[in-house]
Amino acid sequence: MTPSPQRRVDVAGLVIAFILLALAGVVWWDMSKLQILSPYDLGPKVMPIIVSGCLALLAIGNGIGAFQGNLPARDSLDWKPIALILGGLASLIVLIGLGLGFMIGTALLFAATATAFGRRAFVTDLAIGAVIALFIYVLFGKLLTLSLPTGPLERLL
To answer: What share of the chain is helix, strand, coil (3-state, %, to 5)?
Structure first.
């Protein structure tokens, strides 16, 4: 009989499991502070309960996998896509802060994210992002009458 090889506990997997569990706790705690009553006990509290439960299940599964040492090997980290997505998000925040509106920043975020995922047609992606941003603005701003940040393009509508 050959002894089975010792499995090592995956420390990074345990850290991720604890972060997921903490996030589930924060979502649950935030949901418990809602003072919204609904007639059938279904309402805005349902989705945070589902999200919190799913995060807790992910944490448990990740923790078990980390203790058993059978989590998949991690790829090396490529910072370029992360920088592109965070840069697109930062540009959205800055453009909204400067009063240039929702649609310009959202189109730029879409194009930056598409570039981060390997697409090399930035101008085309910018146009696609502009169409999507226009659709979202009309849907939320006009049809649902929700307030989105306005800029020069939004004022035209």
So the answer is: 70, 0, 30
Alpha-carbon distances, residue 124 vs 21, 103, 120, 128 (angstroms) = 40, 16, 9, 6
Q: How far is CA 144 from CA 99, 115, 135, 140, in A?
A: 22, 31, 12, 5
Query: What is the token pair recorded at 55?
Result: 């995060």
What 3-state DSSP class applies to 32? Answer: helix
Give dist(CA 45, CA 35) in Å, integer. 9
The count of other CB atoms within 10 Å of the CB of residue 109 is 21
Q: Please name the residue that has the structure tokens 């696609």.
A: 128
pLDDT at 17: 94
pLDDT (tens digit per residue) in 50-89: 999 999 999 999 999 998 888 787 888 889 999 999 999 9
φ/ψ of 148, rounded to 5, equals -115, 155
**Shortest CA distance to 23 belongs to which of 55, 60, 63?**
55
DSSP E strands: which ranges in 4-149? Answer: none
Q: Report the C-alpha gap between 48 and 111 in whole angstroms.
A: 30
Packing angle between helix 46-68 and helix 11-32, nearest 10 degrees?
160
The pTM (predicted TM-score) of the whole model is 0.63
